Amino acid sequence: MRKLAVLMLSAMTLSACGGGVSSVNSEALITTEAAAPTTTSTIKASTAPTTTQKQTTTSTAPAVDPKTIWTSVQGWDCASNRHLAVSARYANGTVELEFSTSPSSQGFSELAVQTAPSITPREYAWDANSTSGSSLHHLRRIAVTDLESNSVSVTLTSPTQRQVNIQVGLAATHSDGTICQANIFPNIDYESGPSLSDAVLIPDGVSVNNDRYSSFVMPEPTAQALIYSISQNDPYGPAVDENIFDYPAKLRVALYGEPTTNHWRTVADILEVLQVIAPDLDARFAQTHDEVTFPIHVTTCANWQKQTALRRFTACNANGMGGYFSNGDIQSGATTSSVSRGFVWIDNGTYSVTNLRHEIGHAMGLPHVNCAGSMMIVPDNQGQFWNASDLGAIAVHQDSRTTDKMTLEQARKALNIPQDYTWESLLADRTKVCDNPSPAFDVLAADLKSNSLK
Ligand SMILES: [Zn+2]
User: How far is the CA of 351 from the centre of ligand 1 (A)?
Assistant: First the structure.
């Protein structure tokens, strides 16, 4: 199992925060039972690949993709034993459905084409590191609006620039409230969608002033800042490795899903301050999608997404998780830098801007801390903006003298912090690291607060 760090926040609820994901519920969103072929002889011949007759008689004919053959949808998972009589095929990027009679006349009040990533193993699909979080946008239901017709077609266009293969099914709601689901196609490619080479479109009104904090002079790192930066004093979760979190990739950000202008502005506020506390990142919005090393995904979670057994791998967690940061499989994702900085998922709820600042704090290296006023405390007494200690600790992680995975002792030496009485007393009582002894960070934190989206 590849390493996966999931750090989560719920600003106002009681969800557990922290804790890695090590297993996946085997319950599938879409059943994987294969659709049975229809009974007409011509179709049957084309969809029976195990017969020796097919092997001998089709040796010179081009292979027929079974997805393109009309097939009766079978294998309904349906508590009331109701199911929709329908045949399906997939051709030219379009799901085509033929009903025996219209869905409405069969007693169904809602119908959706339901998709989910088909990447295997499933665990990787749902921790989503292999696609830097993009695959999770492919868990969706596309409503069929016309329930009076005997046939409908739904063209499947990739919702993301980074495309994945998907499994396709149907979710049909009977007028008695019963929801019936069936798989149609276990693995298909999109034939249309946006491209990685497309420009990242930043909304009007969002701008980054890289010189906003140019008067700031970085103070030397303190013992408090270093211990704060990597020492877990997490009231909710188990401690993670106390290591420096510093990747060599430049920070190239774009937002995906359903971000609002406020999400973009919040990231712009953060990019400005990173110019002076983490200059090596060269932090900015990416110009094209293939340049992105740090994607931020914002989603408005539908109730059905919160209820699926797969919710723990999205921000759509019914237990109140508002977002998460993942740095697992950090080597994949970015194509131009060869190194990704992980990704963030945010549920577009009431506290999503606060959650976003918190999760980017994780991405900059910060753990949870038990210090009032920090963005990184969960959930009580949380600040609304990175405070002086948060800023000083990010500077430690991104200091040019510290490198990824350095231990506390290695980082102390690298930063020339003396192993004196102050150091030892801070280690003995880590509540003392909440103090920020660098006035320059107090000024910067106050400026950041006044300049940030309220
Ligand atoms: Zn967190």
Answer: 13
CA of 41 to the centre of ligand 1 (A): 58
| Tens-digit pLDDT string for the chain (454 aa) | 223 333 333 322 222 233 222 222 222 233 222 333 333 222 333 333 333 344 444 456 778 888 999 999 999 998 777 889 999 999 999 999 999 999 999 999 999 999 988 865 444 444 566 778 888 888 899 999 999 999 999 999 999 998 888 999 999 999 999 999 999 999 999 999 999 999 999 999 999 999 999 999 999 999 999 999 987 666 666 666 688 998 878 899 999 999 999 999 999 999 999 999 999 999 999 999 999 999 999 988 888 877 765 555 556 765 666 788 887 544 444 344 456 788 888 888 878 999 999 999 999 999 888 899 999 986 678 999 999 999 999 999 999 999 988 999 999 999 999 999 999 999 998 889 999 999 999 999 999 999 999 8
Q: What is the DSSP string of 375-414?
A: TTS-STT--SS--HHHHHHHHHHT-TT--TT-BHHHHHHH
> How many Å lie between the centroid of ligand 1 and the Cα of residue 4?
14
Question: What whole-number distance in Å separates Cα of residue 222 and Cα of residue 210?
Answer: 26
Domain membership flag for residue 33: no
CA of 203 to the centre of ligand 1 (A): 27
Distance 194 CA to ligand 1 centre (A): 32
- Edge-first strand listing for the sheet containing 151-155: 71-72, 86-91, 94-99, 151-155
The reply to whether 39 falls in a domain is no
Q: Where would I find the beta strands (DSSP E) of 83-207?
A: 86-91, 94-99, 108-117, 140-143, 151-155, 166-174, 179-188
Shared domain check, 302 and 177: no
- CATH number of the domain that residue 227 is part of: 3.40.390.10
Domain range for 113 is 65-188
**Cis bond upstream, residue 379 (ω within 30):** yes
At 318, list the tokens: 């019914």
Number of domains in the chain: 2
Q: How far is the CA of 9 from the centre of ligand 1 (A)?
A: 4
- 202 in the same domain as 184: no
The Cα 26–Cα 121 span in angstroms is: 11
CATH code of the domain in which 169 resides: 2.60.40
293 in a structural domain: yes
Choose one of 150, 165, 188: the last residue of a domain. Answer: 188
| Residue 69 domain-assigned (yes or no) | yes
* Cis amide bond preceding 117, omega within 30: no
State if pTM tops 0.90. no
- Using the mean position of ligand 1's atoms as its centre, give its distance from the Cα of residue 361 in Å: 8
Q: Of 145, 161, 188, which residue constitutes the final position of a domain?
A: 188
Are residues 289 and 352 located together in one domain of the fold?
yes
